[in-house]
Amino acid sequence: MDLYAAKSGEELVKEQAFVFPDRSKKLITLRPELTPTLTRMVAQRQQQLHYPLRWWSFGPFWRYESPQKGRAREFFQWNIDLLGVDSPEADAELAAVMASFFKKVGLAPSQVQVMINNRRLVDEQLGKLEIPLEKRGQVFRLIDKREKMKEANWEAYAEDKGLTPNQLDGLKAMLTNHSLWKESEELVRFFEAVDALGIREYLQYAPHIIRGLDYYTGTVFEAQAVTADIQRAVLGGGRYDNLLADVGGDPLPGVGFAMGDMVIAIILEELGLLPKDRDAAPAKVMVTVFNEATLLPAYSLAAELRQAGLKVFCYPEAQKLGKQFKHAGRIGSRVAVILGPDELDNNIVAVKDLETRKQAFVPRQEVAIYIKNLLDDASAS
């Protein structure tokens, strides 16, 4: 728990994390996010690892928050990090991963946008407003709440944090200046890099994006849906150049982002982009079992087809072929393979296209190539 409180921020631990005593009465927490854990792990093996270090993971996380649309107390999260490179171009490489993902799932720039800002730029602007260093952490959190509060409530909150009327006016002007990024060499280089990568249309500068975690030091990201009816971040992240040293390692720059499974699933569902067979098994080929005598030969054939690179499901018992074909259709298989007594005797295999209903008898040694060609032709049509 101490790791997250010190590095992610007291607000995360006090308000959003599951915290409870273990048997020795020490307070522990279910992990609410990954970055501090990742950096501590890297710090422990820092001299054995090779850099730049590209790291990804996918696993469960927990937040003690009120469940609502796009938010649950347990969720899965995809984490992508790049450590060992201190450059805006490295930040752009992470942005390219985001854009590549969005393209892959069918989300256009008109449907999702990655908002970009830079904490060093914001810190410089706060200095110009003569906001003391000791107050800037509070002002970062104030900026993070800008889009989540009504105007009057936000201004009252700002005054409660000790901002003068002039400072508040200056802060409001900063948050509406969409050309401010041009004053940051980091952001200028970042946008030049994303232009070169051909992903600029997915990105825009957003002066109100700051991200709520305390360890961010430079460029920060937050993706938001443009057309879907959900007002939560799709993903978020940023640069954390001091975190390795803070957890006991040697100084090492890092940048990363994380995306939970819930918000993106809702967006894809609302936009009709989830595949219709998303609940189906990924196997496009099902090997049927004709009778008890053909069960083990069917298992052997399934193993051969898998070895050839095909995704194969073998029906686990002898049933009527009609029932097996029906199951194959339900799980999204395109091809059914029949290995009956006659096929075994003649060293052939019956291959049935479940969509066209066409069936062919293929020599056993050629069946993998035949099925691959059949699936390729089906994908191309």
How is the biggest beta sheet arranged?
7 strands, mixed
The geometry reads as elongated
Mean pLDDT, nearest integer?
91
- The domain tally reads 2
For the record, the CATH architecture of the largest domain stands as 2-Layer Sandwich
CATH classification, class level of the largest domain: Alpha Beta
CATH topology of the largest domain: BirA Bifunctional Protein, domain 2
Gap from first CA to last CA: 54 Å
Structural class: alpha+beta
The number of helices is 15
**Major sheet strand order:** 3-4-9-8-7-5-6
What does this structure look like?
β1 (19-21) and β2 (27-29) form a beta hairpin. With 381 residues, the chain is of the alpha+beta class. The protein folds into two domains: 2-270, 2-Layer Sandwich (BirA Bifunctional Protein, domain 2); 285-380, Rossmann fold (3-Layer(aba) Sandwich), CATH 3.40.50. The mean pLDDT is 91. It is elongated, with a radius of gyration of 27 Å. The chain has helices at 2-7, 10-16, 35-44, 88-104, 119-128, 133-144, 151-160, 165-174, 185-197, 243-246, 261-270, 295-307, 321-330, 341-346, 367-380; strands at 19-21, 27-29, 53-62, 74-83, 112-118, 203-205, 219-225, 233-239, 254-260, 285-287, 312-314, 335-338, 348-353, 359-363. The strands form three sheets. A seven-stranded mixed sheet has the order 3-4-9-8-7-5-6. The chain has a five-stranded mixed sheet with strand order 11-10-12-13-14. It starts with a helix and ends with a helix. The chain has 15 helices and 14 strands. α4 (88-104) crosses α9 (185-197).
